Structure formats: structure tokens, C-alpha cells
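thought: fold this chain, then report.
action: predict
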Amino acid sequence: MDVGRLAVEMAAATAGDARMARAFADHLPDSHTARHLLERLRWILFPGLHGQSEFDVTALGARLEVELGDFHADLLNQVKGAFIHWGEDDSGGRAEKVTAEVLEALPDIRDMLSLDAQAAFDDDPAARHIDEVMLCYPGVRALTVHRFAHAMLNLGVPLLPRIMQEHAHADTGIDIHPGADIGKSFFIDHGTGVVIGETTRIGDHCKVYQGVTLGARSFERDAQGDLKRGVKRHPTLGDHVTVYAGATILGGDTTIGDHCVVAGGVFLSRSVPPGHIACGPRPDIRLIVNPNRPGVE
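observation:
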């Protein structure tokens, strides 16, 4: 095999592919650095529960000052790269301003995550202590990334929030677009296979189980046949809504009212008024004797 020839062919194919042109731009945000930032973020938000736990609690403020300083420097570099890669002008120091605003949001993000962890503990009898929730539950891990990425996206940071959210998706099996707007005290139970689309709106004190999809009904196209972007495509959940395992709720004009319950396996593409339970027909269950059970000749 002529490896040199193959390398030349691959390099030429890459250089000639217009879809790859931006990949060679300066300051492309780095996926590895983004993951490292997330691990440091978890320590900053909840020291002692994540990362290095050996520190003097009386000197926590000083330790956090050092950690936040390093975190700020690395995050700023990534935010700058995202703006430059996206072709946006940073000559006015926009990246510095946005990065500072993201860090100023950390106390509020921490408060929201504390409520999320409490909601998980309050609603799950399998949890023995809230530390178990914060250390082990994939829903809390996914929401930690989401609430930080959502803050960045709201401040106009391109690309980087999505990179971070996809790390959470890979780690937990929970796919939340950073654009989704999620209220306080949100509990994702088990979590595997949960999908929450970009324009989803979720109220306070909601709970969803594994396999739930909050998705789009269809994708509208303009007169040229291109996808319409920036329109609401995903559903809205009111306050105190529970969606059980395997349910699918679709459509930007679909609203599930306050204090509703959506049963497992239900497929919904229309709104449900407040205070209702949405359930499908009862399945016809048949019991058949197993001829291969022990003791049967």
C-alpha cells in the first residue's frame, strides 16, 4: 500500500471540499478544552462533591478565586475562538464582556442546580441522600451543562454551547439543546434517551422520565426549499407537569397545561388543557402458559 499517495489524495480532497473551509480557520473552539472546562465548572459550582475534595473549607474563598481566574482565562480563549470562527467581529472586546457576564451568572446557575438536585431527591425514593443525587444522577449532570450552555447561548456565544452540550449527551444519553428554556426544580428520572429540542419551553417543578421526546412535528421550508430556522418547533410544558417514560410530544404549537400528566408511551401532537391526564387505550394483555417452564413434560 502506498501510504504517501493516499495521504496526498486525502489532503487534496479535504482542501478542495468547500464544506471544510471553516475547519482551517484560526481559533476553532477545541472540544477537549470544552470538556475540561466542564469538569472544572462542576468543582466551582459544588466544591467537595466534584474534583479534588482536599481543601481547607475556611480558605474556600481564596481557592475559588484562583480556580475562577484560571477558568475565566480558558473560557475567554474559547469564546473568542467561537466568535472568530463564526466570522463575528471581536474588535470591541465582545468576548471579554460576554465571558464576564457568563461568570456573573454562576451564582444563579448554582442556585438553579441546587433546586434541581433537591427535586430529584424529593421525587425519587431510591435516593438515600442528596449527595448521591449530585454525584451520581445523569439528569443533574446533564442539567449542569445545560444551564451553563444555555446562559452562554442567551448571551450570543456561537458553537461552544453546542460542543459542551454534546459532551453531556455523550456522557449521559440525555440530549438537551442549549436553546431549550427550562424552569426551576426540573427532574429527569433515569434519563437515558431523553430528547429536548431547541425551542422547548419547560415550566417550574416538571419531571420527565427516560425515553421522553419533546420534539418537532415537521420542518417547514421557505419558497426556495430551505429549512426555516429560528421558529418555535418544539412543545411547551406548563408548571408541575409529569411526562412518563417513552412519551412523545411534538410541535411548536403544542402546550401541555399546568398540573398535567402524560402517561408512558403516549404520542401527542396537540395541546392538553391544565389539570388533565393524557393517556392512550389500555393494551390487551394476554397470559399464555409457558410450555417450557420447569416441571412440564
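thought: worth noting. The two ends are 62 Å apart (CA to CA).
final: C-alpha cells above.
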